[in-house]
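Quick one: structure tokens for this chain, please?
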Amino acid sequence: MIATVTMNPAVDYTVSLENALHHGEVNRTFHERITAGGKGVNVSLVLRQLGVPTTVYGYLSGTTGTMIAEQLQRTQIPTDWIHVPNQMNRINLKIREEKEVTELNGQGVCVSEEDTAALVQKLSQYDANDFIVLAGSIPSGAVTTHYADIIGQLAETGARFAVDVAGEPLRAVLAMHPFVVKPNLPELCDLFNVNIETWWDALPYGKELIRMGAENALVSLGADGALLFTSEERVWHLAAPHGDVKNAVGSGDSMLGGFLAACSQGKELTEALRMGIAAGSATAFSEWIADRSRIENILRKLPEPTELL
């Protein structure tokens, strides 16, 4: 089982423009889509496509929370929400202009210590056979060690943690020895306060993630694919396939979902990297989260990852 936790689930309102966005003027859309969003939610959507059991956890509040719950019900993915009163889940606006997407993300729900304790209690049922995904920004007003604290409280369960978060919360998580962390290149730059121009230049920083405590580090590189660093001091690279990018939103989440799907099935890390690239690329080439057939079609054509010495 793979449990995914989205601290800040959202209503994603995606609009497409025929022309470039003009600031200070009225702009017209030609296509609109409303979906349940959030990194953990997206990971579960991919896992569902790949036939891997998954349950979504997170905090819901207000009318937007009701919309999120209804959207997830249609996917038939099991959910176990914590309802927070007198607030509202955020709305994220995504503006698509040809190959570019501009995002305006709202503020998330503020949770109490009691809310966090309720979440930990729900997650305590998982054990060494399971993965728990902590993905996306921490709740509004929470301390930077929020994810690390949750991992610490669940350490005795033996569950393996996959974490997709940026900045200081990521730094705090590394000390808790998660199974895998998944920063992208800009997040790696931010964590180490450096300017990384090429994926090759990212190698020493990916290795540093392992030295700081991660068991594995999956660094997504956009069109350049991904790098995988392991605690055995091995590094692999796999380029992304060429294709018509329609929607980069959710491609990183899909990569993590594909990677964990393979890991949960006992496959080698190199095969997990291939599955991650296939899922991430398939979503980038789709209007939304990719379906299984598109993922498998790409997977069949991918070469083996290249090990870097």
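The mean pLDDT is 93.
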